[in-house]
Design goal:
398 residues, alpha/beta, Rossmann fold, 2 domains, seven-stranded parallel beta sheet, six-stranded parallel beta sheet, 13 strands
Length: 398
């Protein structure tokens, strides 16, 4: 197949779950198919475009500069969202240059399949009816859940307004494209019921088990509990704030010397401040490799209250040999079983109790991590994911 893949960004440095999933799929697809990759970058000579040849036969880099959060322009975008028919999260990606390039490629090159990776590039694609939408998240659900956890009435009102706009846009795109590929059976069912369309299938979530395998030699102990996730994503910020604000004091009351590491790029000032104020907490910022932090910790925590799609971070922690404590939302869509290969808890009290039990019972921690590792080794290889993705592309474009 000759495949056009349209995404908002390039895949290096690979710091987010969506990038990891796309990279693992494209590395394997590009061995058998001709992949053309179109995305935005702030600098054509940066690592992203320079390494695009690792997963594509041709790439097209469109210069686009992200508006910094908390800047005056960003505040202006938020204000404009009050009177726009488009959600802010979509409108910010509108680019005439991307629109022109996508139109040119679709006109001049005979592609067998076109993938819109995430919802956001759809704003720049005129030929959406030729596309398959790769829906890593249901964006509407994320905005609804952000509204549900908002701390003030004005913020809650704004987020609900954005959720309504997102629902309208997401439904329109889903009904226009040739088909939708979701990342879990649960998400596929949600898309069917929320947006009233049936051309939707789903992929399992994969993990590179060899990459995350725990080394045989002893490793430096860095933390008792570790949270891994990009800290420029609002659901991760909410998770860390909730964990440190409400769960962490309960853990420290029982185990005052416990250490927590928050590992992820671009933490905002309020998360950095939490790391400075809270006892036993380290906020690392960007790290070149998360594996030493996973291998050097006793357990992984995923206290997400907001989100959609599936969390690769759970399977990565399992592949690294860690027991995982997560909320139900955090583990949503994954083929995991509470008490068998993961611990699930949705209140501060039950989450803290699960963490304490794992930390104080090496036998239970070892049992849980052993079962989790067996699960990802047997069922979560990327090759299975890619073969299904390839089959779905052919099915939707038949």
């Amino acid at each position: 197949m000759r495949l056009l893949w349209i995404k908002t960004d390039f895949l290096h440095p690979t710091t987010r779950g969506g990038q990891i999933r796309t990279l693992e799929i494209l590395k394997r697809l590009s061995r058998r198919h001709e992949v053309h990759y179109l995305a935005c970058t702030d600098r054509p000579d940066s690592e992203g475009p320079q390494r695009a040849g690792e997963y594509s036969a041709a790439h097209y880099a469109i210069v686009w500069k992200e508006v910094p959060k908390r800047s005056l322009r960003f505040i202006g975008q938020l204000a404009k969202g009050l009177r726009s028919e488009l959600p802010v999260a979509v409108a910010r990606w509108r680019s005439e240059a991307v629109r022109r390039k996508a139109a040119e490629l679709l006109e001049k090159v005979a592609f067998d399949a076109v993938v819109c990776d995430f919802l956001f590039p759809a704003i720049n694609i005129e030929g959406l009816s030729k596309c398959v939408l790769f829906e890593h998240n249901i964006e509407t659900i994320i905005w609804e859940r952000r509204a549900a956890t908002a701390k003030t009435a004005p913020v809650r009102w704004y987020l609900l307004q954005q959720a309504r706009l997102m629902h309208h846009f997401e439904q329109q795109v889903c009904r226009t494209v040739r088909g939708v590929i979701a990342v879990s059976e649960l998400d596929a069912q949600q898309i069917r019921t929320r947006f009233g369309m049936d051309r939707v299938e789903w992929l399992p979530t994969g993990v590179d088990t060899e990459f995350y395998r725990r080394p045989n030699q002893s490793v430096e102990h860095r933390a008792d509990l570790v949270f891994v996730g990009s800290m420029d994503w609002a659901p991760n910020v909410d998770a860390v704030e909730w964990f440190i604000g409400e769960i962490w004091p309960l853990i420290l009351k029982r185990r005052p010397q416990t250490k927590l590491a928050v590992v992820g790029r671009r933490p905002p000032p309020r998360v950095l401040a939490l790391g400075e104020r809270a006892k036993g907490v380290t906020v690392t910022g960007t790290v070149e490799d998360v594996r030493p932090w996973l291998h050097g910790s006793t357990a992984a925590v995923v206290p997400l209250r907001v989100g959609s799609g599936t969390r690769l971070k759970i399977y990565e922690a399992m592949a690294a040999g860690l027991p995982v404590i997560s909320t139900t939302v955090g583990a949503e869509g994954l083929e995991v079983t509470d008490g068998e290969n993961i611990r699930l808890a949705d209140t501060a009290e039950t989450f803290a109790a699960a963490c304490i039990e794992i930390l104080e019972s090496p036998q239970e921690a070892e049992r849980l991590s052993r079962q989790a590792l067996r699960h990802v080794n047997e069922r979560c290889g990327w090759q299975v994911v890619v073969e299904r993705f390839e089959m779905l592309l052919q099915q939707f474009n038949a």
